[in-house]
Structure formats: structure tokens, C-alpha cells
Amino acid sequence: MSQNLAFFKQTVNGHGSDLVGSVLILAGEASGDYHAASLVKDVRRQFPNISFTGIGGEKLETAGMRLLLHYRDINTIGFSGGLSKLKSVLAAYNLMKSELRSGKYDVFIPVDFPDVNIRLCNVAKKAGVKVCYYISPQIWAWRKRRIYKIAAVVDRMMTIFPFEEKMYSDVGVQANFVGHTMVRDIPAEVDKSSVKSELGIRDQRPLVTLAPGSRNSEIARVLPVMCSAAESHLRTFPETEFVIPLAGPHLRELIQRILDESCFNARVIHAETSKIMAASDYGLVTSGTATLQAALSRMPHAVVYILDKFSWVLATKFLMPLVMEPDLHVAIANMLCIKGQPGPDNPIEIMIKEGYRVPCLGCGRPLLVPEVLQHFATPENLASWLERFRTDSNLRAAMEKAFVRLREMLEPLPSNPSPSDALLALILEKRGEATQLKF
């Protein structure tokens, strides 16, 4: 329990573990399910009479949330993917709207997923439900003016990236950087042999992770290219073992079908992705939460991303010039470095000082980890990075040094509230009770 939470529990109007409350959550993808589940576990450990209901996945359900719908039913990527699931998204939106208007809930926690969640914040506001947004929409990346819509309908913003706190505070939102869940969950140091043994991997050959994502559509586009690159790598380095983290049991059939079609043999493991990465020597990772898991696990890696052709053209030819941040990159680790404080301890600067300037293939600016996107994402280019990671121990060491600094940037500040603190304060505010917890 954080010091803030301990203080909070002891001093707020005499409430102890008997505190009652009802919370509605919408986590529309795997990363949101992960972050929100950590929050639910923390709260329920101390306050078992606070109930959670909503849309999420296995992690939220295991943590104790009553699942109304699984996020995979509304999770989309790209314009064409959105159209195919539009009916399901609308049905989920109407379900959540009805729940918010039911009068059953004290607090609504939207988790990222802005196209649906920002609209639901407006519904919650009108229904008198407090809104505690967790995982800010990436307004720093595109459609920056959304911040004013958010400010009008959100009671508190919990950010997991440090630079976001000031961004919201500047427009009057009560915002706190609460630290990144992964910093707590992913150990800074591990014994690779022990982790391998725990995962059932007894072979001591170099281990390489292929992380193709958590959505069917991105796996279908990315994994075949990863497999081709891995086959090329095996021809040069036959004493290599490849492993694929399984983001959810519903993805096993698709991944196995692609492996069979590629005639490529890889071990598919349903375990914590970060644990698999910590046991690995290097890898290829699809853009998204997994890129940060790889960095915090200190696994040297290249980031791979392929959109359907229509979505790529729409994004690069129309959206980027109009509504996107000019210096936008898909790897979370890269964006943290770009948005973070400049100086010699910035992870990108650490890489440069160590003699490695990793250029963006699109704009040329230096990055922390390589991004191999769309038409650059060929088996040859990916195999080239795998070979560099295998043969250049100094490159691996430089990346790992930069990853250590990145972890420090994401650690929670002792003076700031935790996600649990923020939620509990709002429950009491909803009931008209004052709190001595300082934000």
C-alpha cells in the first residue's frame, strides 16, 4: 500500500475497509485491461465492498470486475477494421450509456479508448457520475484540441506518462502522473536461466521473442513477415530458439495457422509477455504496449508495424499533415524520449553517446529503438536487425543502459497520489464527504 493510501484509509471520515462504492469501467483493449486490473486489485485488497462492473478482459475479470462484455468484441484497428465492428461498438456504447444513467455508480473510469470513452464521459457528467480518466488519450500525438473536450467532462485525469500531467494541468484539469503500472510489475533485474526454467524452456540456446500484437488484424499482417525474417536468421544462426507470447487464448488458432502456413516452428507460450521478453536475448515487437514491455524488460528489439494499405495512406497522406504531431513515432519508448526532458540523461542521448545513432527511416531523427514500418517492414530489413542484435554486444549494452534510464522516467513520484488514491477520493466526493488527501 502506498503511503498516501495508508494515510487516506486512516483519516477520511473514519472509513475503513467497510467503505462501499460502485465503479463502472470501460477498457477497450488489452493494455487498458492490464492497467485497470492493477487498479481494481489494489482497491479491492483494502476495500472489498467497492464493486466494479464494465467492459474489459480476462485480467479485469480475474481482478474482481463483473464483465458486461469482452473488449475483443469492440477492439478495432485501422479504418477498415473499424467498419467491420461498428455495429458491436455502437451496441457496447449504448450498453454503457444505459449503465451510466442507471444511478448505480459513483465513479466512471474510462481507460484510453477515446473515440468511445470521451462520449461516455459526457453521458456520465450529465448523469452525475464522477469521471476518473485513466490512461490519457494520446492528444499529444494527434487531435490536440480534444484536450478541451476532455477538460469539460473529466473530474480527474490519471496519467502514466510524466509529461502529460502539466499538459492537462495547464488547461485546468486536475491531473496527476501516477507512475506506470509496468514499472511495478516488471522487475528491473532477472535471472534469465531461472525465468526460462519457470517458462518451461530448458534449452539454453539464444532465445528470440516475436511479439506480433494482440489484435487479429495486426497479427495477420505482421506475423508472416516476422516468420520470414526469423527463417532467414536461422539460416545464419541455426542455434536459435524463437518464442511467441500469446496475448490471449483466443489468438492461439490464428497464430498456429500462420506458423503452419509459413512452415516455421516457434514455441507459443501463454504467459506474461514481459517475462518472456526478460528471458529473451533480443526480438521483434509490434507497436503498442509490448514496445514498452520490451524496453522495461531490457530486451533489445526493433519495432514492427504494418497497417492495411487504405489506413496507411489515410494516416500518412491526409491525417498526419492535418491533425498529427509532426515528430510522431509508433514506439512508446521513442515518444517518451522525444517528449521527455532533453539532456545527457535522455535515453536517446545515451545511445548517441555510446556510439549508436538509430535513425528513423522516415524522417531521419535519432531514436532509442528502431522502427521498421509499412513498406520498410520486409523480411530482409527485420533479419538485418536480428543479426545486429545477435552480433553486436556493444549495441545490446547501449540499449540496456538507455532502458534503465527509461524505467526511472516512469517511476511514480512519492508526492503524487496512486491510482487507488484518486479513485477513492472521488467516491467520497460523490457522497459529499471531504478528504484530507492532497492532490
Describe this structure in words.
- The longest helix has 21 residues, at 216-236.
- α5 runs parallel beside α6 and α10 (192-198) packs across α13.
- α8 links the parallel β6 (156-159) and β7.
- With 439 residues, the protein is α/β, with parallel strands linked by helices.
- The relative contact order is 0.13.
- The model is unreliable at 1-5 and 7-13 (pLDDT under 50).
- The chain has 20 helices and 15 strands.
- Strands 3-2-1-4-5-6-7 form a seven-stranded parallel beta sheet, sandwiched between helices.
- It starts with a helix and ends in a 9-residue tail after the last helix.
- The chain folds into two domains: 3-179 and 412-430, 3-Layer(aba) Sandwich (Rossmann fold); 192-410, 3-Layer(aba) Sandwich (Rossmann fold).
The main sheet orders its strands as 3-2-1-4-5-6-7
The shape, in one word, is globular
Largest beta-sheet characterization: 7 strands, parallel
CATH architecture of the largest domain: 3-Layer(aba) Sandwich
CATH superfamily of the largest domain: Glycogen Phosphorylase B
Count of strand segments? 15
Strand content: 15-25%
Instruction: Kindly report the average pLDDT value.
Output: 89
What is the CATH class of the largest domain?
Alpha Beta
| Global structural class | alpha/beta
Low-confidence runs of at least 5 consecutive residues: 1-5, 7-13
Counting DSSP H or I runs of 4 or more residues, the number of helices is: 20
Number of domains: 2
Fraction of residues in helices?
Answer: 40-55%
CATH topology of the largest domain: Rossmann fold
